[in-house]
Design brief:
By secondary structure, this protein is an alpha+beta fold. The longest helix is centred in the first third of the chain and has 16 residues.
Length: 144
């Protein structure tokens, strides 16, 4: 069933009506918080692949990450641009890894199971991070 859900997501992303719906959703997400807990995952197929279960102890958070490279403040005087050491600097982490780290920092008692891509606009990329509480009795009963 989840395979067909995944194929449906791929197919409807090209649909003009669904693209308009996603654009509207991104507007809402842009006005929201950087890290926001959501009731249900937007993409249940991806969440289930990462280990999500619809029970207590499992949490899904939508995380917003800014796009673009690492910008450094240039030194005030004394060097030409090529030698300033501010260009061509890359982040050591992907946007997905940054989203996972931010969610882990916000929800300290939860373990990150993984994250999946939701969408992007000109300024931000959104990921949903799936986490679980390893000490919750409902989660313990499944893992043991």
């Amino acid at each position: 069933m989840y395979r067909y859900l995944n194929e449906t997501w791929k197919r409807i992303r090209r649909d003009p009506e669904f693209r308009a719906y996603l654009t509207e959703k991104r507007r809402e997400w842009r006005r929201g918080k950087t890290i926001e807990r959501v009731e249900k995952p937007t993409r249940i197929d991806k969440a289930r692949q990462l280990g999500y279960r619809a029970k207590q102890g499992y949490v899904v958070a939508r995380v917003r990450v800014r796009k673009g490279g690492l910008s450094k403040i240039p030194p005030a005087l004394g060097r030409r641009q090529k030698r300033m050491g501010i260009t061509k600097i890359k982040r050591g982490l992907s946007a997905k890894e940054i989203a996972e780290q931010r969610a882990k920092k916000r929800f300290r008692n939860l373990d990150v199971l993984g994250a999946y891509y939701l969408g992007e606009d000109g300024k931000y990329i959104w990921y949903e991070v799936v986490m679980k509480d390893p000490l919750h009795p409902a989660v313990k009963s499944v893992t043991s």
